[in-house]
Write a structure and sequence with these properties.
single chain; alpha+beta; OB fold (Dihydrolipoamide Acetyltransferase, E2P); 2 domains; 6-stranded antiparallel beta sheet; 4 helices
Length: about 170
């Protein structure tokens, strides 16, 4: 049964959550989600060990319980960390907060053409070049020109992570 839940989460649920987020936002959330998962696992392990100590188990039994617990939690972490992240991203989208506008400047490589391979965006707020494939592919299709300033509207979710349902870009 657990295997079927894992297959559903990994093969169906997980890929459908990532399409609403930029990769940089997913990676930032993933760091937090991993830390939360590790803390929850340590709390669970501590609870189990306290129960074992209350049962007045001998050292050999406690050592065996600890070893089994560490192995089980490690397996759980390896197989469910991406599902845990996906569930967090799904929860984030359930309540919409404020709209978030991000401003970019359209750039093409010097001497290049207006092809997709020469197209990139400069994030005005973070002061760096965007390499996000989802964002570049979506905005390139609008046909912007060199040095166009565009703004893209995102929504801020329950957990404070910016997401989009569809990319709507407009010249500023």
């Amino acid at each position: 049964m657990l295997f079927l839940v894992w297959c559903f989460l990994i093969l169906y649920f997980d890929p459908r959550q990532e399409r609403f987020y930029l990769d940089a936002d997913i990676e930032q959330f993933n760091k937090t989600a991993r830390l939360v998962l590790i803390i929850l696992e340590f709390c669970f392990a501590g609870f189990i060990l306290v129960l074992a100590l209350k049962e007045k188990s001998n050292r050999k039994q406690i050592f065996r319980i600890s070893l089994n617990l560490v192995f089980a939690l490690l397996v759980f972490y390896i197989f469910f960390q991406s599902a845990f992240t996906s569930i967090g991203l799904f929860i984030n989208r359930q309540t919409t907060g404020n709209d978030l506008n991000r401003n970019y400047v359209v750039q093409y490589l010097i001497g290049g053409t207006n092809r997709r391979s020469d197209f990139f965006l400069y994030d005005m707020d973070k002061k760096h070049i965007i390499t996000e494939k989802k964002l570049l592919d979506s905005t390139y299709s609008f046909g912007f020109h060199q040095n166009d300033t565009i703004h893209i509207q995102f929504k801020k979710g329950l957990l404070g992570i910016a997401y989009f349902e569809e990319i709507i870009a407009a010249r500023k």
